[in-house]
Amino acid sequence: MFKKVDHIAIAVPELEEAIHLYKGLLGKEPEHVEEVADQKVRAAFFGVGETNLELLFPTSPDSPISKFLEDRKGRGGLHHLCLQVTGLESHLQQLKSQGVQLIDEKPRIGAHGKKIAFIHPKSTGGVLIELSEENKSCH
Ligand code: CO
């Protein structure tokens, strides 16, 4: 079942600069900053009502975020949106059986220790969509 928009992710070429910018825009500090080794990113989260803005900065030249920024000549921009679901594995099986192209056929662990999986933009009208499931032991 789909629950809510968990976060909207923005790729940024300078993390401290972007945190400063969003502190000004939102009038608060990020609630959480975390390095996600698996995705080679450092992520800063700002809560906005029921959802979050996630600033994503690459920690390695072979990070997917480095590639994204290169393709945009170094400019940041909207990178993906994340929908929170329950029963992530069965969601993925269902989508696969419908012919949806998945980047991750099995969940992996993302920020906050949550199970996540990405759907290919070819199957979503050009938008990278992440699915995530709350890790109940964590929060
Ligand atoms: Co995300």
Structural features:
eight-stranded mixed beta sheet; alpha+beta; 139 residues; single chain; 2,3-Dihydroxybiphenyl 1,2-Dioxygenase, domain 1; binds cobalt (II) ion
What would you note in describing this structure?
This protein is an alpha+beta fold and 139 residues long. The chain has a single domain, classed as Roll (2,3-Dihydroxybiphenyl 1,2-Dioxygenase, domain 1). It is 22% helix and 37% strand. The chain has three helices and eight strands; from the N terminus they run E-H-E-E-E-H-E-H-E-E-E. The protein has an eight-stranded mixed β-sheet. The longest helix is centred in the N-terminal third of the chain and has 12 residues. It is globular, with a radius of gyration of 15 Å. The mean pLDDT is 94. The protein binds cobalt (II) ion (CO). The site of cobalt (II) ion has 6 residues, from strand 1 and strand 5.
